[in-house]
Amino acid sequence: MPDTYDAIVLGLGAMGAAATYQLARRGAKVLGIDRYSPPHEFGSTHGDTRITRIACGEGPEYSAFAMRSHEIWRELEAETGLDLLTQNGFLAISGAGDRSANHGVAKFLDATAAAARSAGVSYEILDSTTLRRRYPALNVADGDQAYHDTVGGFARPENCVTAQLRAAVARGADLKLGETVVSFLQHDGFVTVTTDKQTYDAAQLIVAAGAWLPAMLKPALAANFMVTRQVLYWFRARSEAAHAQFAPDRFPVYIWQIPAPQSIYGFPATGSLDEGVKIATEQYDVATTPDSVSRTVPPEEVREMYETYVEPFFPGLSPVCVRSKVCLYTWVDKARFIIDRHPDHNRVIVASPCSGHGFKHSAGVGELLAQMALGEAHRDIAMFRLR
Ligand SMILES: Cc1cc2nc3c(=O)[nH]c(=O)nc-3n(C[C@H](O)[C@H](O)[C@H](O)COP(=O)(O)OP(=O)(O)OC[C@H]3O[C@@H](n4cnc5c(N)ncnc54)[C@H](O)[C@@H]3O)c2cc1C
Questions:
Q1: I want to staple 36 with a disulfide (CB 3.0 to 4.6 A). Which of 40, 87, 109, 126 is the partner?
Q2: Ligand 1: which atom is nearest the Cα of residue 358?
Q3: pTM of the full predicted structure?
Q4: Which of 10, 45, 233 to probe ligand 1 with, by most ligand atoms within 8 A of CB?
Q5: How far, rounded to the nearest angstrom, does the alpha carbon of residue 141 sit from its chain's CA centroid?
């Protein structure tokens, strides 16, 4: 007889690790399965840092997830001793003239301030003079403005996954790593999950497969998603003094709507001069798949990034790129999350809360997924439905 679980979680990245932990914490018999051994570098949850913000310009409906994630990460920091969350402040910078939209939101600064008011987050609006004085690393234009709060900051994605999987196992969760799910089938009140090694039964299945999700759905549902290749860069500062301007105690995380096709975002320096300063932009022009994506970053791509998106805004950063990483967005129109029951299998929950801004919400989303799987009361998910 195959093993029978209350729930199986397919995929143990940001969302799946969080769901597995929340299920185990509730005393459920849970199995987590991943084709790799998370945290790993093939999906969407790597690269040292992720921006977290309670005031979400993508929509006020996201704030509760981020708030809950902060609480859960603080509990897990106490339990595991891992560094998960740094609240060094968040800037949303914009200005006059043509500016890039961020996650499809043209007036991202205004939308962020509105979300802050709705979530009860205190904030200030800084003018360009104040921005230059406080953050000399930033080359803002005259008349630029920024939203600033002190609850935002950055999370450590690899540590968050490790902490949740460790805490889940400590509460009795089973994990199968290096095992690929090849199919799932609902029948007779169960879901049977078949991997390349074995078969398992569960009352509920949570599919948190990240960029691999569209290939698991029929074309009409897969059409909700577009997987895109994104690149993270670490540029070396020109000197120790320039590097010091990016120290986390004096430099926040930021999203900057610049006069270019895409906005830029970035982080304080989390290491030495030679470890560089992380900065990125986004692209939504070319779709890809996790199996076909190019994971190398050629020198021309680095040069274009530096010349268009780095040098004009951060004169203290040199063209020396000490590191780069390719990562995948699973994008849904209007930067939406998908969290829904599978239309053909009511025991299967489909979880794709990404659209390039999912990490900060992942611990809270994991709690929602566990509540859904175990039939507990949970928040309304109407706005996250598959279309
Ligand atoms: C470059 C980049 C920057 C980002 N920046 C931010 C940010 O600053 N702030 C923010 O909040 N969010 C950010 N995000 C978004 C956030 O990181 C993602 O939303 C989140 O990590 C998605 O997690 P996931 O669990 O859905 O996917 P993943 O972490 O990729 O997990 C999916 C898992 O499923 C497994 N899997 C897939 N198929 C199978 C199968 N058949 N069998 C078994 N296992 C399988 C994979 O191995 C993988 O481990 C960023 C994303 C990227 C790519």
A1: 40
A2: 19
A3: 0.98
A4: 45
A5: 29
